[in-house]
Specification:
Layout lengths: L1 H29 L5 E6 L9 H4 L21 H9 L2 E4 L13 H9 L7 H10 L9 E6 L2 H8 L8 H21 L4 E5 L15 H28 L4 E5 L1 H10 L5 E5 L1 E3 L5 E5 L6 E3 L7 H15 L11 H7 L7 H23 L1
Parallel strand pairs: 1-2, 1-3, 3-4, 4-5, 6-9
Antiparallel strand pairs: 7-8
Helix pairs in contact: 1-12, 3-10, 5-7, 7-8
Length: about 350
């Protein structure tokens, strides 16, 4: 009986050690940070992008300029880079659509060669044309695009009036951008789906039917994006693509009144929706900077959520029971393989004990 107890203790100890090793390996493989971030997108990611071409907006000296940033501070990718201590190469341009730029005059300047191409595909083409050098394993490429396509579509200024054609076109543009980067050696991607435009202040005066329509359209886009991501992963060997659900995260902030004011704008807007330069109150109270763009605090909260859910730090704590830890698993992966490992090792050990006793 004593021998049996001692053997069982050895078995349990061995299994726990192997489980700890397996969990550590899983964490290292899936929960990590990167030394470099290369970002593409529109005004939700842009900081000093468009303004570097047209100058910072000033109603008197530069009325054709652009804001330095479409918020009251840094945007999500800057917070993420700061959290990781990563180098950031931000190629996002305010107003960018998935292919070109929402502003016809700016796009005309791009087409003439006065500006580079500024849409997602154009941003990627410009980046690739520089023959970039980067550490494949330590560089994360991020994409957040599509909101301006929908805004132009809603104004009736898009090339199509068919929602399926709209979404299909954006998916093709995102795929083309990812494939172009992949062909240059990029293997690690973060793609962010669209938040619900229907809860932004720009829709606060719309009818319930209009809000429901844009919400359904964004959800259809996000569903198509998830399918596109899976297709890219299936067809591009060795690629890693994380998809962050900003729709759910931003909607939860709105639904739970995470800010004192989730429907108004921090920036004072005139009757046409243009910024007057004045503010409406305390910045900490507002979720939205203007009718469509979030406050820097909202950006920071999204970056924190993104980091914690997709790239969590290694789990140093938890229960003292190795079995409980293995069953619960963690954000980096499923506990199922570990449970299978426990059961398999247990029965192997039992079989070994039985053989020893018979011998």
């Amino acid at each position: 009986m004593v021998e049996w107890t001692q053997l069982m203790k050895r078995v349990v100890l061995s299994v726990c050690v192997l489980i700890a090793f397996a969990m550590a390996f899983s964490t290292v493989a899936h929960a990590r940070t990167y030394e470099n971030i290369v970002a593409f997108g529109d005004s939700l990611t842009d900081h000093n992008g468009l303004s570097s071409y047209v100058g910072v907006y000033d109603p008197d000296t530069n009325p054709n300029g652009a804001p330095e940033v479409w918020s009251n501070g840094d945007v999500w990718v800057e917070y993420l880079a700061a959290d990781w201590g990563a180098n950031l190469d931000n190629n996002a341009i305010g107003g960018a659509m998935s292919l070109g730029h929402e502003n016809a005059e700016i796009q005309a300047l791009s087409d003439s060669g006065a500006f580079p191409q500024l849409g997602l595909v154009g941003q990627v083409d410009l980046y690739v044309s520089t023959d970039p050098e980067f550490d494949e394993e330590e560089t994360l490429f991020t994409v957040l695009i599509g909101a301006n396509d929908f805004l132009e579509f809603g104004k009736g200024e898009y090339y199509t009036t068919d929602p399926e054609v709209l979404i299909g076109g954006i998916m093709n543009n995102i795929s083309d951008a990812v494939v172009s980067l992949y062909s240059e050696g990029a293997v690690n991607f973060l793609i962010i789906n669209l938040p619900n435009i229907g809860i932004t202040p720009s829709y606060s005066s719309k009818s319930a039917a209009e809000i429901a329509a844009i919400t359904a359209l964004i959800q259809a886009y996000n569903t198509a994006l998830a399918t596109t991501v899976e297709s890219l992963k299936a067809n591009l060997s060795g690629i890693s693509i994380d998809l962050f659900d900003s729709f759910t995260f931003i909607t939860e902030l709105f639904d739970t009144n995470a800010f004192a004011n989730v429907i108004g704008t921090y920036m004072e807007l005139d009757a046409e929706g243009n910024r007057t330069g004045n503010v409406n109150g305390d910045a900490d109270d507002y979720m939205f900077w203007d009718s469509i763009h979030p406050m820097t605090r909202t950006h920071e909260m999204m970056a924190d959520e993104l980091s914690e859910t997709l790239y969590p730090e290694e789990n140093d704590g938890g229960s003292s029971s190795c079995f409980i830890n293995s069953v619960q698993g963690n954000a980096a992966g499923s506990a199922t393989p570990l449970i299978v490992l426990v059961v398999s090792l247990f029965f192997v050990a039992i079989a070994g004990i039985g053989l020893k006793q018979r011998n």
